[in-house]
Specification:
227 residues, alpha/beta, seven-stranded mixed beta sheet, three-stranded mixed beta sheet, 10 strands, globular
């Protein structure tokens, strides 16, 4: 009887995160929302948290755009380098982007690698200032920036708003994480800041959401900047 009770409990009770993910899966978001943008071969896409390159590969295959992939974990970076070595339109960088240039300790756990999870194997990784990277590479607009950096999104976006750099992002696709201290409050503050220049086009809390710059016209912000 206890085994049956446990089985029924697991089937009937869903954790908050399970409910969030279920709603996302219901709309097949990974294959629809995350890839459906007004992009072209002239577009620039940033992929923060490249991991194994799935998003970069799929967005390039669909639009033929220029993709910048940022991956500070050495193992994943080397795999990405090998994966895209024949593709001149996908550039892979061995560092992450953040509010400031620094080195941090990262807990290694595949796609859950994070500065907030330091049990087990770790690696010191390089982060480069987001604004400095844009200025150095003369990039005015990013047509789509995808951010999945396991808690680092808060510091990055808070810095972007503080430096008034949000107008460089036409579309911002971000995954917020709830294991960060004061996550809900910080996310609300970021939302409030973004809402001054962007509109929320779709949102599955703590799964994925997208912000698009206000008064958007397809093709109006396409950047010709190149590394």
């Amino acid at each position: 009887m206890r085994e049956l009770t446990r089985y029924l409990t697991n089937k009937l009770y869903l954790t908050p995160q399970s409910r969030r993910v279920r709603a996302w899966l219901k709309v097949n978001g990974d294959h629809t929302l995350r890839l459906n943008y007004s992009l072209s071969s002239a577009s620039i896409v940033f992929d923060l948290g490249g991991f194994e390159g799935k998003f970069a590969r799929e967005i390039f295959e669909k639009y033929g755009c220029k993709v910048y992939v940022f991956e500070p974990v050495t193992l994943f970076y080397r795999k990405l380098e090998n994966l895209f070595e024949q593709n001149d339109d996908i550039n892979v960088f061995p560092f992450g982007l953040a509010g400031e240039s620094t080195r941090v300790l990262l807990g290694l756990d595949k796609d859950r690698s994070s500065t907030y999870r330091l049990s087990g194997e770790t690696q010191e990784v390089q982060l480069q200032c987001f604004g400095d990277f844009l200025r150095t590479n003369e990039i005015q607009y990013i047509d789509l920036i995808k951010i999945n950096i396991e808690g680092g999104e808060y510091d990055l976006l808070e810095s972007v708003l503080a430096q008034n750099l949000q107008n460089s992002m036409v579309n911002l696709q971000v995954q917020f994480h709830d294991f960060v201290p004061d996550a809900a409050k910080r996310m609300r503050n970021i939302h409030q800041g973004l809402s001054r220049t962007h509109e929320l086009t779709w949102c599955y809390p703590y799964v994925w959401e997208n912000w698009r710059i206000r008064n958007y016209q397809s093709g109006a912000h396409l950047s010709s900047s190149r590394v």
